[in-house]
């Protein structure tokens, strides 16, 4: 297509619908929001599919601005070598996993990756500590004391670490998640 | 379109000698992914990797079979159909943006209350549609006689009321609307439905009128139970092993839909509070387990004592309602003063508003853990609310039943039930109608006369008192109880006031906007975390209880109480249920009647009961066996993992002894310090710069299987 308007072609739309959980409207809306983040000269069709947007820009989106896990989210979904920028397809992947129609398995898979702060494939005590600090915030009165943190992490490991190796792996995490019906409704970001 | 992964693999193989184990695992992984039937969308990889997998699954040049092509075409059509239906539902989706805004600002717990409001409104509208299509439309179609009370001249009743002065004509009209008297000759109330005697060819309006409330209640019951069971499985019936409390709270509590900074801060505060409370409760449980017997007995005694005191208070409140209803019914027609007409609703609201305050105060005196306090207060509030409604209906019924069908109407005169006006169903319907209206206006009054001034005073005045008072807290359980009580009243009135669901849905429509305004402007969110799943379970449970409170009296009335002689559809029957055998006798053949009688008899239900008990026994024993199996499997898993790490340590020791200086194998959990990243990631990392050992899913099975090769 020779036009420089930002309309995705029909084949591309069908392909994206096949590869993600998003509907046509959601894909078009995501494309529009992504193009708004690009500099003026790259807002045409070909460039918008090729150019990457840096993490700082993605973090200005209102859906991610207030999320304590925003940097982790961008890092997990990025396919750049330094993991610091997102292409349009990464952007679509992000909203596909966080959409309404995504299966609980894929959501729990990506939740595990987001919570794994050191990217080693398991949630060890340090990961859990950082997770709890993200959840409770940085304020002096909301952060848990050292003893409380220790007690909390021991409780978590006792409840979820089935094979007693001191870390929570993916299957154990998915086992815990499958017991809470809240997860699918809270792990959702809608554009 | 060179794939990202393939590029990585080729560069890797150029750079260093191939890590044979890594390559083997990588190839196995790709094989496994390509052969699974998992949809492409559901694979947890980046878009370009999914393209590669799609290419590997069906290479472009290969001709796909006719079946595959047809399946793909069908999937595309199905997808288009889903898109269109989603778009249509989006047009009809009521309040979607409002719910989205509330969820973004306050999280899913409070949003679930508003979703519940929408659910109830739709439920009421559907009930109204059912009633009108089954009863009103046929009535209009069959050109029935005009609605109105029957004139029974044999009792020499006055044919008209005393003429009212002109000045207060408008005032009286408005007043009559509020008490329901102006509408008592319309289709709103039971008394004005008329029909000729039953015949076998015509549509039986009586049967429809009788069966439509029962059908509605049954459908609501099934729907509520179904929704409750979904949440129940995850919550209550699981033993301690299966119920990870804190870990699920840690992993699940963040609402990713929150979009504003302040809301995120509030959420963080509530999560922090929640964790601290849970940890404190854990400490307290540990302490309690170390208590002596005497202390435990004393605690139990005080708990039982507290419950008894609260129970006495509840009984006192309910008897107050009984006396108030009796009093107001005694002097029903004498004066039009505000106090007497709306006395019962007033007393009910007073009891229901003072009660929770008292309960909360008493419970706090005992210094229980916070969860116990909240649950106890909530339990007694539910009991108070539903039993007050039940007692109200019971006292109404008592008055009505006592006076109808009596030959000597002298003792009924003071009660206002003289023979000319003998339509007790209408009175009951009017009382329920008044209660419904009163609840709605009370909600408006609280929102605009208490919450709004409180917010204005707190915001504009400074002083210790105002700072302490603060804005009102938006308590979800209290609001849910109010709305469920309103729904219970609607269900109670289905038989006496068939158009009440329409009124209720209009009220709920306005309630949504008023509550939204109150939440966004005049309230502060509660510091207690209220998770959506526990909320939904609680809503469904209270709704179910309300349904039971409404259905039991209705079933009793339909089956045993004789209807009024002067009004309504069932004037010639000993009880409304008698229409059913008569209709069956008229319309069905004798053999069909025999079949129905068999279904109602004992010989049918005893075998069914025995069968159900057998099924229940089998299910229980199966679940016990499953629990034991799971315990055994956990032990096995633990043992196998320990053995695996043992083998790994042996292997690294052997390798160290035989050759290389640095151990390239992973280390056991006892020495965590230098765990190489290359070996046990749980998932593929498309951007990871170095090696590519993929192990999606269970890490342990792969490593164990790889070690079995060595």
From TrEMBL, chain A:
CDD domains: EFh. SUPFAM superfamilies: EF-hand (SSF47473). GO terms for cellular component: apical plasma membrane; centrosome; endoplasmic reticulum; filopodium tip; growth cone; lamellipodium; nuclear body; perikaryon. GO terms for biological process: angiogenesis; apoptotic process; cell adhesion; cell division; cellular response to nerve growth factor stimulus; cellular response to tumor necrosis factor; cytoplasmic microtubule organization; DNA damage response. Transmembrane segments: none annotated. Pfam families: EF-hand_7. Residues 103-138, 148-183 form the EF-hand domain. This is Calcium and integrin-binding protein 1. It comes from Phascolarctos cinereus.
